[in-house]
Amino acid sequence: MGLRALESRVLVLAPWVFGLSVLGHLAMVAFQTKMTMVDLMVYRNASPELFTGGLYEWRLKEFSDQFALPFTYPPFSAIVFVPLSWVPWGVARWSWQLLSLACLWYLTKKSLSLAGRDDPRRALLWTGLFIWVEPVRTTLNYGQINLVLAALLVGTLVSATAWKQGAGVGIAAGLKLTPAISGLYFLVTRQYKAAVWSVVAFAGTVGLAWVVSPRLSAEYWFHLLGDATRVGPVGSAINQSLRGALSRTLGHDIQTGPVFLAAVAAAAVLTGFALHAAVKARDVLAMIVTVQLLGLLVSPISWSHHWVWAVPALMWSTYRARHVLATVTAFAWVAAIGSYLISFLLNAQPSIWVIPRPWYYSALGWVYPAVGVLTLVTIAVVLRRRSPEPVVEHRVDLLGQ
């Protein structure tokens, strides 16, 4: 039985699935069951250090026995997060959780809409289920920003207004650099005005932060940028980038040497085939998924909770692509994000800093990159000969058509 056939049988229960999932999650928040929200603590507690000059020396030592967590985002992020420090911790954590849940629903609903399945019950069903998959679960547990950024990007990339598109990407990149890969979407769809606006918006975030703290801005952009080891343990199982997977396979950090560059080149070529097919088919969801998967694969650090882009990837492979390879890909995503394999591998490794490990753990540690690559292959193959089709809620002037 395919995912769509299974879904049709449980769609009537969608409000119950959603309601019980949300209540279960909120109960975990209330009783703090594995809900330390350490990343939210970093955002909240470190941001005032922007005004003392100690933003990048600050460390969160609570709940992090192997690695005292630093603030790793651009200075503009600290400006945005400062209001969190004005309210009690309880208010901050509850507000962030409710915002993240709303963004998960919006990301799911928008992905379904782009896949041609804009049904409120379907959005409720999938949102309820997605609350419990590993990338979303860890994003919620850590109080991470991933769902907020993904919702911002999906919502603005398909806007009919160039400045809104560009502003969304530029601001997201100003908060956390990795969303800058979204600019590739503008280039392949020839939306050059939006691309220019994204550069302007990003420059605005940099400029604002420079006015607030020139010294910290210079420190970040000229000294800290590119230092992946400062962000965390590159070889830990939680790093699901190509660099992380290859480092675990070879037993040492490959850094940005020939092996890494070859892997990036291969990912770029595969992305090129997938984007060519997606653009030809005018499949907006496939374009967005392809661009974001490239970013996750080639980034030095892609923690497992960064892979919330599995949500639109699964929606595309389940609903937009009617092909046996797409069905395989959909089940692969369900197995990858529903199995909590990364959590198992984290418990199995002796330390987050130890890279060598048994070959079978190294092989299992490829799970997200492997399914990401499979998705790119599926997009390239499935859309290669598909005639252009109308796509729900996308720019009407896409590619000048």
UniProtKB/TrEMBL annotation:
It comes from the Bacteria. InterPro entries: GT87. The keyword Repeat does not apply. It is found in: Cell membrane. Its main location: membrane. It is a multi-pass membrane protein. Keywords: Cell membrane, Glycosyltransferase, Membrane, Transferase, Transmembrane, Transmembrane helix. The chain crosses the membrane at residues 12-31, 67-86, 145-163, 169-188, 195-213, 259-277, 284-303, 323-347, 359-383. Belongs to the glycosyltransferase 87 family. This is Mannosyltransferase. It comes from Saccharothrix yanglingensis.
